[in-house]
Each structure stands twice: as C-alpha cells, then as structure tokens.
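A common beginner's mistake is to predict each chain separately and then try to dock the pieces by hand. The better habit, illustrated here, is to supply every component at once so that their relative placement is modeled jointly.
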Amino acid sequence: MSLIAALRPTTARAVANKSISCLASSKRLQSSYAAHNPYLKDFVYKDTVRVKDGSLTLSKDEHSMIDRFIRVNQAGETAAVSIYQGQMAILGNKGDIKLTELLEHMREQEVVHLDIMDKHIADFRVRPTILQPAAAVGGYILGATSALLGVKSAMTCTEAVETRIGMHYNDQLRDLYKLKYPQLDELKQSIAKCRDEELEHLDTAVEHGSQMAPLYKLQFELIKGGCGVAIWLCERI
Amino acid sequence: MTIRLLGRAVATRTVANQSIRPKIRHLQSSVPDSSGFSGRDNTKNNTNLEILDLALTKVHDLGWSSTAVSRAATELGYSSMAHGVAPDGAISLISHFMDRALDETCIEVDDQLHEFPDTSECLRFICTTRLKQTLPYVQRWPEAAAILAQPQNVPLAMRHLTNLSSQMWYLAGDKSTRIDWYARRSALAAVYLSTELFMCEDRSPNHQDTWRFLKQRFQDMDKAEYIGSKTVAFGEQFSRNLYNILASRGYVSH
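With all components supplied together, the output reads:
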C-alpha cells in the first residue's frame, strides 16, 4: 500500500483526454513507472476505507465491523435519551424532586453518550441506521409505558435496558480489542466509558427498588428481549 | 465468426511451429492481502485487472461483452478461455469499469478538495470528474445502462450507485449523522444518474449542455434541501407555539 502511495504522482492534474482508454487520462499513467510496474494496476481505493480524515485505512471487513458497532450504538443512545424523556414526562409531575433530578441527571449523561457516538459516525464514515427516528419514538413509548406502571416498574425498565446494553458494549469491546490500530484507542475508551456509566445507571435503578416491582421477572425479561431484537435490527438496517 | 478466425489463426501457428510449443501464459494465483481479518475479497490479482483494463479499451469496437474480454486475454498472451476472469461477461466488465472509474475519481480529486469553500461546489466538481470518466465510453454507455437495468443486475447496480453517492458525499465533506444522511445520498444518486443519461444523448460542443444540466440539477437539490429545512423549522415552531398555548390554558401540564 505504501509503495502505491509513494509512486502516485502528485504534480499537475490530468487533462481530460477523450481517447478510448480512460486510463490514459488519469494521473496514474503520467508517471514513467506505470508502464513497467504491475503494482500500479491495482486499485488504490477500492478494497479499503479511509477513515478519521485519512489517518487510518481499514479493510472492508474491519470497516464493516466498526460500522455495525457505531451504528447500533448511536441508535441505542437515541433510544436511551428518549426512554428517560418518556419516564420524566409521566413521573415528573408526581412532585418527587429527587426522582426528577435523578432522571434528569441520567438523561444528560445519555445525551453526552449520543454526542460521542455522533462524532464517531462522522469520523469513521459510518452509515447511521434508518431506524434512528423509530428508535427515538419507540424509546419514548417504552419509557412512558413503564412509568405509567409505577416508579418501580420504570426502574425495572431502566435496569433491563442497561443490563442488555452493558452486555452489548462488553461484546463490542471484546471484538474491538482484536484490532490493534492506535487510532482506535479513542473509540475503545469512549465505549468503555459509556459502558461504565450504563452499569452505574443499572446500580442506581436497583437501589431505587427495581426488583420490588410487580411481575418483575416478566417485565425484566420482556424488555431485555426487546432490546436484543432492536440491537439485531439496527445492526443490519 | 471471430472465434472461427481465432481458431484458424491458432491452427496455422501450431502447424508452422510444430517444434516450438505455443507460449501460454498462466493466470497467477491470487495473493492474499495482509490485514487483520481474512475477508472473502481481500485478494489482489494483478493479472485479472490487466486483462479487464485492456478489455475496457476494446469496448468501443466490441461493446460490453465477454468477446472484448477474450480478445484482451488473447492479446496479452493468455488463452482465450481466460474470459472466465469475467464470469458473467458483460456485467463483470461494466462492474470493473465502475470500480475503476470511482477509483480514478478519488485519485484525481484528492489534492483539489481543499480549494472549494462551498460543499455544493465541491460536490459538483467531484460529480463532474466522475462523469468525465464515463466520457470516453459515452457512445457505448446506453448499452451498459440497459444491461445494468436487467432484473438480475439491479442489486449490483444499486450497490454501485449507493457506494458512488456515499463516496462522493464523503469526499465533499459531509458530516451528517441522522436521517438526512439518506436524503442527501438519494438526491445525489438521482442527480448523477439523470446527468449520465443526459450525457449519452448530448451532442453539444465540449458537452457544455451536460455541465449546464448538472449545474441546474445541483441548484434544484440545494433548493429542495433549503425548503425541507425551512419546513421542519416551521413545523417545530408551530408545535412549540401550540404546546405553549395549550399549557397556558391548562389543557396540558407544564
């Protein structure tokens, strides 16, 4: 790859030559090396993806893995923000200041996560999922529904979502640590930070009585399963 | 008829040079790319690319077909059965052309991107560069477009178009992270496709009508984006005002 980059001419731009061969009009063949060097016939950009403003070149497979991860993370954080918004809309009027402040604090942390994931989407040339608006709406509905069932049920919903997300981030980190590029360190650190804060939310939810909710096991498993389905969908669509 | 002529040529050669075995070059084995993942398509095969590139120069006479690939293979010294490097014939050659054209566009455009302050201007320049890659084949391009429109080739054509659109926006500096990522790419794909088809029929000197058409389409695209953002802003303001009115009347809790 570096051989190709070194041999690529950097001088004058090509004249648009209307000859039969399109290769004659390209910069590539202006160099005298081109006629004799078989390597220059390779594609320069086809099988790789340049990310992070060109500072890192990934193969198609590596990029598709990172693409999937960041796409589903952005959708997940959007859903998390709207889950807390939904819960606040229902539980915010009960007059319990501490609960409102707690929900607001958790929502702000999720907003920070969402901004991190948006930045990664721009950096790594990730295709955002087309279900992102659907994730926002679905999250709001989930948060509002669980809050309607009571404070403890809202905490159960939080606990289930955060458990699933914690598992999910751990799986991602496990796969990301197989890639050794130093430019990926920031990505790994930010995912680790998000995972730590999600697990913190999980502990907070348990402290506030999530396991005392009525039909706790059913709610927990249902919401965790739903999250799994959503993750599967967002990775592909 | 071409195959019969080729056969006769081979026959006379073997009769004349019975002591010398005809030199048949063998296709090289593919060299696996060294990367962290063992992907399916991580193979560099210089020989295949050589044959396909030479076949592209024959498209003007022989059209987009496996005949062009066979002729190219024979000229380079390989067996004429080597048209198996393009197993589906025409569509492989067209696909190779599109990959090559996009690659050349990226190389060409690489050092000039910073000269454009405006994203739209930058995008139009990149689009123009890509269209100029098709210019040498413009007489035969309607044939290729027809082949790409066949039902069995539509998924491949769609993949190429979306890849092209995405790559062009990326080079122009697009940083969208929401649903407008899709809106922008589909708009650009439509603009590019319509301009390419226009270019096939264009007989004006220096293709100036094509460039004017492209400029007009870009203006339409910018206007559509402007109108879209204004509509969304209006909708937001309207719903905000409505909520405030209802809250002040006590119909919703604030």
